[in-house]
Amino acid sequence: MWSKLSAEERTIFRRITIVMAASYPVLVAVAAGVNWTVGHLLPGFARASWPELLYGPAITLVCVWAMVVLEVWIRLRFRRG
């Protein structure tokens, strides 16, 4: 798959990957903030552990990255005809 891509297409995939990797710390911070806020607002609420806060956004980003890359790849294939 990758050997047949043009330089422009490789740049597109590289930028998608960079954006997804850069958004990971933001998602972890948001998840930690929500976890902290909910834990203080609802005392009986079970707070998430740190592995859940780290792996949840990571799994989400990997799935979203895979869907975006697959969609871009399919669109590029049909555009070329």
Could you characterize what this model shows?
With 81 residues, the protein is mainly α. Helix content is 81%, strand content 0%. It has two helices and no strands. α1 (7-41) packs antiparallel against α2. The protein is elongated, with a radius of gyration of 18 Å. The two termini are 15 Å apart. The model has no long low-confidence stretch (mean pLDDT 84).
Pick out its properties.
single chain, 81 residues, mainly alpha
What is the element layout, followed by pairings?
Layout: H1 7-41, H2 50-80
Helix pairs in contact: 1-2
From the spread of the alpha carbons, the general shape counts as elongated
Give the count of helical stretches: 2
Into which percentage range does the β-strand content fall?
under 5%
Task: Kindly state the number of beta strands.
Answer: 0
What's the rounded overall pLDDT mean? 84
First CA to last CA: what distance?
A: 15 Å
User: Structural class, please?
Assistant: mainly alpha
Sketch the major β-sheet: none
Report the order of strands and helices.
HH
**What percent of residues adopt helix (DSSP H or I)?**
over 70%
- Radius of gyration over alpha carbons? 18 Å
Low-confidence stretches: none
